[in-house]
Each structure stands twice: as structure tokens, then as C-alpha cells.
Automatic annotation (TrEMBL):
This is NAD-dependent succinate-semialdehyde dehydrogenase. Residues 26-482 form the Aldehyde dehydrogenase domain. The lineage of its organism: Bacteria, Pseudomonadati, Pseudomonadota, Betaproteobacteria, Burkholderiales. Belongs to the aldehyde dehydrogenase family. Keywords: Oxidoreductase. SUPFAM superfamilies: ALDH-like. Gene3D superfamilies: Aldehyde Dehydrogenase, Chain A, domain 1, Aldehyde Dehydrogenase, Chain A, domain 2. The active site is at 258. Pfam families: Aldedh (PF00171). It comes from Acidovorax bellezanensis.
Length: 488
């Protein structure tokens, strides 16, 4: 099935600045990870394009912040309707440039739209407070105001959901936006911006600049140096997040950083093993393991380890690997050669240190250069690269444990703290673990965590700030205290 679009004009290949599509300067290739074929060429942005985007956003901010919240909400609702109306085209675009199976591409569009709808509704709820005055004749208020121009830097693994999760609350709050999508997957972001334009987002309120991996620092540094940019929102690696935090200090920008993870997945001896396997399949192998919250370390109690491993291997070995153009595909290609090389290195390191491959463990060159077989390892331990680094691929390393306190210590023995999962039917243990695990998100007998109504974010080296939920809107607002006296 060819992944063609019923609306070819949704495949945009230009910057969007001040309400105009602009082809400026050199270009770079966007490729299909399934075949390596070039899909499109988009502009390779530079500091000039980045500053032009800020100029437009800064000029548009005064009018947008004064636009009534209900009117902003109506624009966002129209955007949501357009996204859902073009779900099939957007899903195909995601699958072409990112590689995930088409069913997952369609699902991501629905997930992205849920954030647009949520923040359309939240736009009218940015309520302030009336504070009881300590003396007569005074009125005291806490007002919520938009922070200003927001720079959004989005990742490649969910090119629709991540841009929606950042742009929707910014626009709802009354902020204007400049955005730099991931170089691997700019086409989905550009299509969403085109639909936002159709929905009535005014010129300059939303701007997007594309750039290659090599030119991205030039674009982002221009925004970091610009005092008119008042907030950075970033999803990506911890080293880059720390760089953004350091560079934002000079202009004291507000930051939301959703960074790396090293999620533990714990299966206790009293767990429903079939449910635990299904939960791990959903959490680990969605998007080929290329998610920030996917389990990276799987701890299984010794009493149920072998049974759990057998159930898991049966499910993993049955996964259909192939391109998104094949409706039977359940796992697509990895995003690029660097990703496959890292996965292979992790598996080889684990085997060299004593792990055993129960299924998978190899590339799949007959399918293409970027395919890796879904893999289960037994005998993993804390010395292996797969326990110390985020694999970001379809590899589930199993580690035996026998003591609750021991596994809690192992789960927390990482600088990261984004997500954690565990399966148990002991209600007392459930609350002990929920309290003890050092993570911003905890799944209890559940492998699918994300929802637009829930706060998404981490602790420790996994960042700070929250996306989604009422807290997601607050990250684009600041509080102004107003005190009026002599009222008596």
C-alpha cells in the first residue's frame, strides 16, 4: 500500500514565518527510514531564519495575548477538528518519515489532537485568585499572564504528538511560538502548522523553522541569545537539556525539559503474569521501543522469572516486523543508522557480559538497513550498557530479583527519573512502591500511561516541568500580583 496523501498540499517543504511559507537558502533531505529513499527536501535554517521567526512572534504577541481566551479556544478547536479530519493523511505522513506502523501513525494523530482539544478547553480556565487582604481598604489579586514568546524544540519519535503537546498550551495561554522540529521528521510538524493556519491562527503567532542536525545549534542558539524569547520547551536528551538550561541562564528564560529516561519495569511474584506481559508489550514495543517512557530495565521476581520469560518470548517472537506500507507490520524500522548501531552495541555488550538472547538479537538486513529484531535478553545486570543507557529500541533485558527493598534500590539506582512501572496485587506493596520509586510517572498494573489530562514529566536528570493536564497550561503562564489600596 503506497503511503500517498489525499491532500498532497499537506506535505509542506518551507519555513512558516509571519504567516508565509518561505523557501530560504540551502536544503536537506528527509528520508524514509524503511528504504532510505528521499521523501522531500526542506530548508536548512540558519540564525537569520531563527531571528526572523522571533521578530514575527514578538510582533504578534501583544495582539494575541489580548485576544479573548474564548476566541483563542475556538481557533484551537477548529485546529483540532482539522487534525482529526485529516487523520489518515497525517498518519501516513508520520509513518513515511518516522517509520512506525500505519496503525500507530493514525493513533498518534488522535493522541496529538487530544492535547489540542484539552488545551482549547483549558484556555478559558486560566483563572487568577482574589487574596484576602490583611488590612482594610485594600484589594489583592494574583493574575495569570502568558510568559511571552516560546521556543519549542521537538523530537522525532512522536512528530505530531510532541508538537501538539507544546504548541497547544502555549497558544491557549496567549503565548506566541517559534518551533524547530526534529531534522528526521519535519514534514508532520509542517503539516500540523498548515492546518493551524487554516484554523485561523493569526500570522506571526505560530512560526516554524526547519534545520539539519548540523545547523540546529545555530538556530537554537539564536533563540537562546534572544531576550525576547521568554521560554524554552524541549523534549530530547539530557545532555542537550542541560546545555539549554545553562545557556538560558543569561536571559533567565522559563524552561520545560522532558529529558532521557531509564524506566524500570518490576514484576513481583504475586503479579498477574499475563497482564504484566501485555503491559510490557504495550510499554516496551510501541514505536519499536523508541519512546522516552518505555521500560529499559525489566526486573522479574525469581519465583516467576522463567514463566514470565516464556510468556514474553512467545509474544515478542510473534511480532511482525516490516515497513509501514505493509498493513501487517507491528514493528517498523528504527529511525536511522545511529539508532540501529546503538541497539546492536547494547545487545553485544550484554552478551559479552553474560546475558543470553532468548529471541531476536540481530539486525534484519533482508528488510533494510534500519531494521532490528525485537529482542528479549535474560541474565541482564547493572553493569551492562543496556542498564546504564537508554537503548531506545525493541530490546527487553530481564534481571532476576528476590527482595522488594533490593529491587527498589536497583530501580532507583539511575540518574534518571521519568517513568517507572510495576505489577503486583498486594495493596500494601502497591502504596509502598508508589511512594518509593523516584520517577515523575508511575504505572501500577498498567503499561500505557500517557493521557492529555495527566501531568507528564520527570525528576532528577529526566528534567522538570509538566506537559498535559492543568499543570501543562501553568508552564506557559506567570503570576502577577496586583494590590490596590485606599479603597475605604
Amino acid at each position: 500500500m503506497p503511503l500517498t496523501l489525499s491532500r498532497p498540499d499537506l506535505q509542506r517543504t518551507a519555513h512558516f514565518i509571519a504567516g508565509e511559507w518561505q523557501n530560504l537558502g540551502p536544503t536537506f533531505d528527509v528520508t524514509d527510514p524503511a528504504t532510505g529513499a528521499v521523501i522531500a527536501q526542506v530548508p536548512d535554517g540558519d540564525s537569520q531564519a531563527a531571528r526572523a521567526a522571533v521578530d514575527a512572534a514578538h510582533a504578534a504577541f501583544p495582539a494575541w495575548r489580548k485576544t479573548p481566551a474564548k476566541q483563542r479556544a475556538q481557533i484551537l478547536k477548529r485546529w483540532n477538528d482539522l487534525v482529526l479530519a485529516h487523520q489518515e493523511d497525517l498518519g501516513r505522513l508520520i509513518s513515511r518519515e518516522q517509520g512506525k506502523p500505519l496503525a500507530e501513525g493514525r493513533g498518534e494523530v488522535s493522541y496529538a489532537a487530544s492535547y489540542i482539544e484539552w488545551f482549547a478547553e483549558e484556555a478559558t480556565r486560566a483563572n487568577g485568585e482574589v487574596i484576602p487582604a490583611p488590612v482594610p481598604g485594600r484589594r489583592m489579586f494574583a493574575l495569570k499572564e502568558p510568559v511571552g514568546v516560546v521556543a519549542a524544540i521537538t523530537p522525532w519519535n512522536f512528530p505530531a504528538a510532541m508538537i501538539a503537546r507544546k504548541i497547544a498550551p502555549a497558544l491557549a495561554a496567549g503565548c506566541t511560538v517559534v518551533c524547530k522540529p526534529a531534522e528526521d521528521t519535519p514534514l508532520t510538524s509542517l503539516a500540523l502548522v498548515a492546518l493551524a493556519q487554516e484554523a485561523g491562527v493569526p500570522p506571526g503567532v505560530l512560526n516554524i523553522v526547519t534545520a539539519s542536525r548540523e545547523r540546529t545549534p545555530e538556530v537554537v542558539d539564536a533563540w537562546l541569545d534572544d531576550a525576547r524569547v521568554r521560554k524554552i520547551t524541549f523534549t530530547g536528551s539530557t545532555p542537550v537539556g542541560k546545555h539549554l538550561a545553562r545557556r538560558s541562564a543569561d536571559t533567565l528564560k522559563k524552561l520545560s525539559l522532558e529529558l532521557g529516561g531509564n524506566a524500570p519495569f518490576i514484576v513481583f511474584e504475586d503479579a498477574d503474569l499475563e497482564a504484566a506481559v501485555e503491559g510490557l508489550m504495550a510499554a516496551k514495543f510501541r514505536n519499536g521501543g523508541q519512546t522516552c517512557v518505555c521500560p529499559n530495565r525489566v526486573f522479574v521476581h525469581a519465583a516467576v522469572h522463567d514463566r514470565f520469560a516464556a510468556l514474553l518470548v512467545a509474544r515478542v517472537a510473534a511480532l511482525q516486523v516490516g515497513p509501514a506500507s505493509d498493513p501487517a507490520s507491528q514493528i517498523g524500522p528504527m529511525i536511522n543508522a545511529r539508532a540501529v548501531e546503538k541497539i546492536e552495541r547494547h545487545v553485544q555488550d550484554a552478551v559479552a557480559r553474560g546475558a543470553v538472547v532468548l529471541t531476536g538479537g540481530t539486525r534484519l538486513p533482508a528488510l533494510g538497513a534500519n531494521y532490528f529484531a525485537p529482542t528479549v535478553l535474560a541474565g541482564a545486570d547493572a553493569t551492562m550498557a543496556c542498564a546504564l543507557e537508554e537503548t531506545f529500541g525493541p530490546v527487553a533485558p530481564l534481571t532476576r530479583f528476590s527482595d522488594e527493598a533490593e529491587v527498589i534500590a536497583q530501580a532507583n539506582d539511575t540518574p534518571f527519573g521519568l517513568a517507572a512501572y510495576f505489577y503486583s496485587r498486594d495493596v500494601r506493596r502497591i502504596w509502598r512502591l508508589a511512594d518509593a520509586l523516584e520517577a515523575g510517572i508511575v504505572g501500577i498494573n498498567e503499561g500505557a500511561l500517557a493521557a492529555e489530562a495527566a501531568p507528564f514529566g520527570g525528576v532528577k536528570d529526566s528534567g522538570y516541568g509538566r506537559e498535559g493536564s492543568v499543570h501543562g497550561l501553568d508552564d506557559y503562564l506567570h503570576t502577577k500580583y496586583v494590590c490596590q489600596g485606599q479603597l475605604d
